[in-house]
Amino acid sequence: MTATLAPQQLSKKRTKNAGGPSVTILAGIVIISLVSLQGVGFAAFSTDNLFLILNYLALPLLIGMFASFSLLAGVVDLSIGSMVGLSAAVFAVLATYELNLWLCAFLAVLTCLFFGCLNGIAIVGFNANPIAVTLGMLVALRGLARVVNKYDNSATLSSTDGTVIFIDGLNTFTEASFSFLPWLFVIALAFTLVLQLIISKTRYGRHIKAVGGDLTAAVRAGLPASRIKFTSLLISSGGAGIAGVLFVGKMGSSSSTLGTGMEFTVYAALMIGGYSILRGGVGNPIGGFLGLFVIAYFSNYIDNMGFDTRFADVFLGTLLLVIVYLDIRRGGEEFE
């Protein structure tokens, strides 16, 4: 006998689907495309402009994909932006002392993993509130990055500005491209596709979504919930550490403001793509990529029109409020 939905249930289901992530992404891309076409013309769709968008998108996409592990596990890590800044500062300062660059990069990522471990101990070990813990870590690491920048071995910049260290080989790698595709974007996209397979097709992917979707049920089913949550925080912090090193390669310095607000940009994009900061176990990497593309496209429009870049912050803040509302509307799309 085939089960059928009652009219009220069917209506409710349709309402939820109408506010689903696919609709949000499609609406965002269509609206921004039309606005860009009206303001910039067909130049908005040129290969040169697409290169700029994808170049802007590459590292936030890499950060977002690593951070999505913690979101799927039901943990919001607000410290990722500060970890990017700290990693860049550690790497740049060590590099000014002419140490082996691989060693510098390893120590920078290891530093972020250490603080990710502290996040994990507080959140998983002591059952502390994730937002409170990672918000405190955000502030602490932002200050620590400024302190680290004081100990560079170059007199190029004052300690309040950051550390300048142009690394030719690393810069060549981060700026390399194939046609209109930046190599960093290609790498980030490849990682996104691999992650999509891991989340949707592997046992680990099912386990992490189960832990984030219903922790009690996951524990009763015998899943290593604590280990999965702890590991997800390490993955999130490790990804931020790698991105910090690559940012130094692109910019030739570790700015004292690097990573500021990046956590909000990344999480807004992931939420556009269907992830949730209200519950875990919801979302997929391809959706996260498309959400980041929407934000990158809008930032590109702001630049092309010559508007004050602070308008992007207004847009992002408004977008976050709208997405949180839609996330509440999609409350029934929990992990099952």
Please sum up the structure shown.
This protein has 336 residues and is mainly α.
Helices and strands in order:
Blueprint: H1 7-18, H2 21-39, H3 47-72, H4 80-96, H5 101-125, H6 130-148, E1 162-164, H7 168-175, E2 177-178, E3 181-182, H8 183-201, H9 203-213, H10 215-220, H11 225-251, E4 253-255, H12 262-272, H13 285-305, H14 310-329
Antiparallel strand pairs: 1-4, 2-3
Description:
The structure is a single chain. With 336 residues, the protein is an all-alpha fold. It has one domain (40-329): ABC transporter involved in vitamin B12 uptake, BtuC, CATH 1.10.3470. It is 72% helix and 3% strand. It has 14 helices and four strands. It has helices at 7-18, 21-39, 47-72, 80-96, 101-125, 130-148, 168-175, 183-201, 203-213, 215-220, 225-251, 262-272, 285-305, 310-329, and strands at 162-164, 177-178, 181-182, 253-255. The protein has a two-stranded antiparallel ribbon with strand order 1-4. A two-stranded antiparallel sheet has the order 2-3. Helix 2 (21-39) runs parallel beside helix 13, helix 4 (80-96) runs parallel beside helix 6 (130-148) and helix 5 packs antiparallel against helix 11. The two termini are 22 Å apart.
